[in-house]
Each structure stands twice: as C-alpha cells, then as structure tokens.
Design goal:
With about 325 residues, the chain is an alpha/beta fold. It folds into two domains: about 160 residues, Alpha-Beta Complex (Quinone Oxidoreductase, Chain A, domain 1), CATH 3.90.180.10; about 140 residues, Rossmann fold (3-Layer(aba) Sandwich), CATH 3.40.50. About 30% of the residues lie in helices and about 25% in strands. The protein contains eleven helices and 15 strands. The strands form three sheets. Strands 3, 4, 5, 6, 7, 14 and 15 form a seven-stranded mixed β-sheet that branches. A six-stranded parallel β-sheet has the order 10-9-8-11-12-13, with helices on both faces. The protein has a two-stranded antiparallel ribbon with strand order 1-2. Helix 4 crosses helix 5 and helix 4 packs across helix 10.
C-alpha cells in the first residue's frame, strides 16, 4: 500500500517519506479500514519532532491518529456485517506505530466509528481530536445549560466546535477572537458575543458581556498566557478547562489565589479520556452528524504525496480549520 512514514525525528521535509509499505491485516478484535482521508493535528507534528522519544524503538512510524474510510475486512470476533461500513477512525497511532497516513489501517474495532452517509470523509478526518476534545471540554463536569461559558480562540480547530457544543446545550457562550473574520465565525457558530483577547482589558470585557457577572466555565487554548485574565473573569467554584499551553509550556500557578476561589482545573487530552467519556462523545457526535447540527471547516486538503506541506501548515498556523490529507480515492 502507499503510505507516509518516518524513521527518525526531525523536520517534516527531512524525515517524512512516501512510498510502499506492507498492507496491514485485521487481527482478532480489529477492522481493516481502506482510508480516504487522514487528519493532521498538532500532536502528530510533535511526535514527528520527538515528543515521544521511544516512539521509534520498534521501527518506522506511519503518523496520524485521525482518519475516515470504509471497512475492508474484519478480524476474528468482529461482526462480518461491518464490512463496507463508512467509518471515522481515532487513536490509530496512539501507543502503536501505524496510523492513518496510508491507504489502509488496522485498528481496534471500537476505534472505527460509524460515519453517517451525510457526512463526508473530509469531515470524518476532523472528528477524532478536534471534535472529541471540544466535547470533553464542554461536558466533562456536568450540564452547561443556563451557564456562561467562555471559549478562548473560538475560531480555532477545537474552539469552533466547543462554541457549537456549548451553545447547542443551552449555555451563553462568550468567545474570544483577534480579527473581525474570526469574530463573525464565532457568532455564526452560536456565540452570544465576542471579545478580542489581544486587548489588555479583555477579561473586563467578558464580565461586561455577561451583565457584570463572572462566568461559570472557561475553555482555554493557551493556559499559561491566559491564566491571569481567566482568574479575573471566572466565578468562585468555577471551572477552567484547558487543552493547550503552547506559548508558556510550563505555567506557574498562583496556588493560593486559585485555592481560595475553590476552582476546578481540568486538563484535557483525548488519549487519556476515560472510555465512558469517549463513548459519550461518540454518541453525541453521531447524533449531531446525522442531524447536520455542526459546522465543519476543512481549510487545506492535500494529497498524500504532499504530506510534508500538510505538516508544515500545522506548524506555521495562521489559518482556522482542519488540515486533511487525501490517502486514496474512496467514494464519499
């Protein structure tokens, strides 16, 4: 099969290879998926750069955890009726070497989830990390109906979905964005108002937008940078939920200030979510997809031969939406 892989850590241009690899087989409890698309996420780029030093100990790695396609074959213990089913795949390269940047992937049966006919394979490649992360951020600590939820970076890959999940669940959503275009995107996704997080008084603007009251929950993309402002806007016993801290990678916590506010601090990553949380996300995602209740944005769609470009896009940033690699021609 055609695939992309790396045998050493380094820049995309230096280490990513494209060529032929052996087609995998579905072992007991697994399905073999003929992939149409593969999603590229920041974690994939970080792994390629060496964030998991032991990753290459057993040999070359085919990157990417997310993707979508059609089940080609099933292993022992998996219902034969799954053959031919459209699916989205998640955690394909978590704690294993072979991910979705290939024409085929063999994964555990439960990691290949039904993709409704009205959802494209491009959308399917955006679900695993962006959409499941957003779901966990919004719902990990109970219903948000009637609450005020702040989503920083509301036009980003995860933020865009978080705005939608929270608004559709009955929350008043205040998003942050740094441009008029991004603000318009947040409003269109369901935000009640938007403030510019590049302005020094953005925390005060959030409180003003909430009729002078502090907010219940903050879903944050840049924890280390934003924490001082977040503490100025969140209520006592509120929840700070974060899935990223790229700029300040080792944040220092004002412990006593946070303790006397009785705050909940939750850090989210899909790989470590309890299986019950993953299943809750899967159930809600299935319903939302079937009912066409979510907006999706695939900003870049590139062929497998150009996977280097796909990785470089993630590293460069500056756009709002998902980067998807076309792995093989499979009919939507």
């Amino acid at each position: 099969m055609k695939a992309a892989w790396f045998e050493s850590f380094g820049s995309a241009r230096d280490v990513l290879l494209v060529g032929e690899q052996a087609e995998p087989q579905a072992a007991a409890g697994e399905v073999l998926v003929r992939l149409a698309t593969s999603g590229v996420n920041p974690s994939d780029v970080k792994k390629r750069m060496g964030s998991a030093p032991n990753l290459l100990d057993q040999g070359p790695v085919i990157p990417h955890s997310d993707g979508a396609g059609v089940i080609e074959a099933v292993g022992e213990g998996v219902p034969a009726e799954r053959v031919g089913e459209r699916v989205w795949v998640y955690q394909a390269q978590h704690e294993r070497r072979f991910g979705t940047a290939a024409q085929f992937v063999a994964v555990e049966n439960r990691r290949a989830v039904n993709l409704p006919d009205n959802a494209s394979f491009e959308v399917g490649a955006c679900i695993g990390i962006p959409l499941m992360t957003a779901h966990r951020c919004v719902f990990a600590d109970g219903p948000v109906d009637g609450q005020t939820v702040v989503v920083t970076g509301g036009a980003g890959r995860v933020g865009h979905y978080a705005v939608q999940w929270a608004a559709q669940a009955g929350a008043k959503v205040i998003a942050t964005a740094s441009s008029e275009a991004d603000a318009a995107m947040c409003l269109d996704a369901g935000a009640a108002s938007v403030v510019n997080h590049r302005e020094d008084d953005w925390a005060a603007q959030v409180v003003t937008a909430n009729a002078g009251s502090r907010v219940d929950r903050v879903i944050d993309v840049e924890f280390g940078v934003n924490l001082p402002s977040v503490l100025d806007m969140i209520r006592t016993s509120g929840a700070i939920v974060t899935y990223g801290s790229t700029v300040v990678t080792e944040p220092k916590l004002p412990f006593y200030q946070m303790m006397f506010m009785d705050l909940l601090l939750r850090l989210v990553i899909v790989y470590a979510m309890p299986e019950s949380a993953k299943q809750a996300a899967i159930d809600d995602i299935g319903s939302a997809l079937r009912e066409n209740r979510l907006q999706h944005r695939v900003t870049h769609f590139v062929p497998l031969d150009e996977i280097v470009h796909a990785h470089e896009l993630i590293e460069q940033g500056g756009f709002r939406g998902c980067v998807v690699v076309a792995t093989a021609p499979v009919s939507n």
